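Researcher: Here's a chain I'd like modeled. Treat it as a single chain, no partners, no ligands.
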Amino acid sequence: MTTPVTAVYPGTFDPMTLGHVDLVRRAAGLFDQLIVVVAAGVHKKGTMFTLDERMQMVQAQIQPFANVSVQSFSGLMRDFVRAHGAQVMVRGLRSATDFDYEFQLAGMNRSLMADVETIFLTPSDQYLHVSSTYVREITLLGGEVSKYVDPWVEKQLLAKYRAQTT
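Model: Modeled as a single isolated chain. Structure tokens:
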């Protein structure tokens, strides 16, 4: 009998892109339980969306996946992983730049929790260049982002853009 494997996929998801959803779909097929962890984002200069708004976006996107849940967290990811008995952290890689950062982060996480593995997934080809930062910038400059985010997320982006420009 095998022990169920719980994985966590942490990020700020500001906003959640179709690349993120692609990784959730693929990770959901690999693990018994996947927890998408929406970080409060205190380590970043600021997020476009509040934590509650990002939680709602992620929740809307994970509906099709029965073994996926969403939770928020502020603090050291090690503490969240330990509290939920997770054995795996899922991280996305799009480029060599991502790899350098993620490789260092995986090393630090291994030193903090040696029994937890970090698994790197690359998004499908059509999402390799998509980042939340680019999606926010394109939106703020009046560009089209419908091929990078779900229509519901796009509506949230446009509403946020209108609120900032009025």
